[in-house]
Design brief:
The chain is α+β, with helices and mostly antiparallel strands. The chain contains one helix and five strands; from the N terminus they run E-E-E-E-E-H. It has a five-stranded antiparallel sheet, covered by helices on one side. A hairpin with a 6-residue loop joins strand 3 (29-34) and strand 4.
Length: 73
């Protein structure tokens, strides 16, 4: 996993939602920003299905969510 990788959540309350990796904590955990949420969350990397697309992570969370919504279309 690397910063900017698009993923789909496989487990938890956000299962099935598109998200982007914003920070890698260690080999098991990453910080993600999911569609439909406004805050970054810590997530187990095994609960994510990586997609081949990458995007640039913006400075603000709102800008990143807006860019993520554009990628979904």
């Amino acid at each position: 996993m690397e910063n900017g990788r698009l993923c789909v959540k496989k487990a938890g309350r956000d299962a099935g939602r598109l998200c982007v990796v914003t920070n890698v904590v260690d080999e098991n955990f990453v910080k993600i920003l999911c569609m439909g949420r406004k805050k970054k969350r810590k997530c187990n990397a095994r609960h994510l299905e990586p997609l081949p697309q990458k995007m640039e992570v913006k400075e603000s969370e709102e800008a990143t969510l807006k860019a993520l919504a554009e990628m979904k279309k």
